[in-house]
């Protein structure tokens, strides 16, 4: 290969980067919203079980494919293929993941821009700049274009610097900052009236609901989405892991961090919703359903912060900074997928490829902004409800049906010589071959219905 590849310099570097990719707006806000909409603690219990029993095996398939191939998603999948039709199939799956990641980033950048705009509003009000504060949260094309461009600039800036100096370096900085902010906000919200009621709803499961079909499918979908499966992200991140590392342990650690931060996010959001309700903000409709769903973050929480007086400005600033950081740790992974393909398959300079691809995705974002009411939902549904399940399922098919078992075992044994005698090797190949494709297929069928 003409282009030299980067590599994570340490295990903690990969773990922070992979967990950062997994922990984004979908986890910090999406998971608590799903929890509130699907039985509270019952959803949490099912999510935790499925994350380790189904999402973790699929996650392992993707990072193992990447480390084996030591290349972008397309090349890695093709290295596993021995026949012409398999190589063509590999191109479709790998390039499909790259397209999926690009589409997700195109609308994700808009949502992240809104998070940044609310952080700017709080900062501007603290500084007494009321006109800037009002503009930052106005529903205008100019505001959307400005903050989306700003967010994409930050994403491009990090990816231009490569694996070790870009992705790894900034993930190590941003992830601890995000976790620290999350814990501080949880501590404060727990002191407010109504928080204990929210905590009980979050931690006291109604066991009779855990087998409800909609709850099961929603929890499974959240588990796969939160680990960035089906976007080529974990394939390319896996390709940057040194051969000496124990992949079984690393995969478990990333899954544990991802699930833990989702759980922490629930400890913040669910009690905060009940605090807002105690202050007179309507959270649930008469039938018990959640009002407004994901958009609650822009309505309920600002109302909660407003009710805190002057202190609420600082709490609001901290919260929306937290959301912006969570978004950035995910966006850099989404951009790395197409950039690595352009650099390695077409021998384009990394900085040039990052800038060009970033601009193309930004132009797609502008197209979405021009017809926000229709395009935002369409692109989000196309990429997350259709694209991700299909690509994740096909990656499991590759690992389970196309990759030769002896070659797969040899790859895992690098860094884990005794894996052949472990419970993981006795269970995981069968899981990946049969259970994971069927489970992800179920999520996809549900999205169609």
From TrEMBL:
InterPro entries: Na/ntran_symport, SNS_sf, YocR/YhdH-like. Pfam families: SNF (PF00209). It is a multi-pass membrane protein. SUPFAM superfamilies: SNF-like. Keywords: Membrane, Transmembrane, Transmembrane helix, Transport. One of its GO terms (cellular component) is membrane. The chain crosses the membrane at residues 12-32, 44-68, 89-111, 141-159, 179-199, 219-242, 254-276, 311-335, 356-380, 386-403. It is found in: Membrane. The keyword Transmembrane applies. It comes from the Bacteria. The keyword Transmembrane helix applies. This is Sodium-dependent transporter. The lineage of its organism: Bacteria, Pseudomonadati, Pseudomonadota, Gammaproteobacteria, Alteromonadales.
């Amino acid at each position: 290969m003409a282009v030299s590849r980067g590599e994570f310099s340490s295990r903690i570097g990969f773990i922070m980067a992979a967990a950062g990719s997994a922990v984004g707006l979908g986890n910090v806000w999406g998971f608590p919203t799903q929890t509130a909409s699907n039985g509270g603690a019952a959803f949490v219990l099912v999510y935790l079980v499925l994350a380790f029993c189904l999402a973790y095996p699929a996650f392992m398939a993707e990072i193992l494919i990447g480390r084996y191939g030591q290349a972008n998603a397309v090349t890695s999948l093709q290295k596993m293929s021995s026949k012409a039709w398999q190589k063509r199939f590999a191109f479709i799956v790998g390039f499909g993941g790259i397209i999926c990641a690009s589409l997700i980033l195109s609308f994700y950048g808009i949502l992240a821009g809104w998070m940044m705009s609310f952080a700017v509003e709080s900062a501007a009000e603290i500084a007494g700049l009321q006109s800037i504060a009002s503009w930052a949260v106005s529903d205008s094309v100019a505001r959307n274009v400005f903050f989306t461009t700003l967010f994409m600039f930050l994403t491009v800036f990090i990816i231009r610097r490569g694996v070790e100096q870009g992705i790894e370096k900034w993930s190590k900085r941003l992830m601890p900052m995000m976790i620290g902010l999350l814990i501080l906000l949880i501590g404060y919200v727990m002191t407010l009236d109504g928080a204990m009621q929210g905590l009980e709803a979050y931690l006291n499961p109604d066991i009779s609901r855990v087998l409800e079909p909609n709850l099961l499918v929603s929890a499974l979908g959240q588990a796969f989405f939160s680990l960035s499966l089906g976007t080529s992200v974990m394939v390319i991140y896996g390709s940057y892991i040194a051969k000496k590392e124990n992949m079984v342990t690393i995969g478990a650690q990333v899954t544990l961090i991802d699930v833990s931060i989702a759980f922490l996010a629930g400890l913040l959001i669910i009690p905060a919703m009940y605090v807002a309700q105690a202050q007179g903000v309507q959270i649930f409709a008469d039938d018990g359903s959640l009002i407004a769903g994901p958009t609650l973050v822009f309505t309920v929480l600002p109302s909660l912060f407003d009710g805190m007086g002057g202190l609420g400005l600082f709490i609001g600033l901290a919260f929306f900074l937290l959301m912006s950081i969570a978004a950035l740790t995910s966006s850099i992974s989404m951009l790395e997928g197409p950039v690595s393909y352009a650099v390695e398959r077409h021998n384009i300079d990394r900085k040039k490829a990052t800038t060009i691809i970033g601009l193309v995705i930004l132009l797609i974002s502008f197209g979405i902004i021009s017809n926000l009411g229709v395009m935002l939902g369409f692109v989000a549904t196309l990429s997350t409800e259709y694209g991700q399940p299909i690509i994740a399922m096909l990656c499991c098919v590759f690992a389970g049906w196309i990759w030769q078992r002896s070659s797969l075992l040899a790859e895992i044994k690098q860094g884990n010589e005794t894996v052949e005698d472990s419970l993981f090797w006795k269970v995981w190949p069968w899981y990946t071959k049969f259970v994971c494709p069927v489970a992800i297929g179920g999520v996809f069928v549900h999205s169609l219905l």
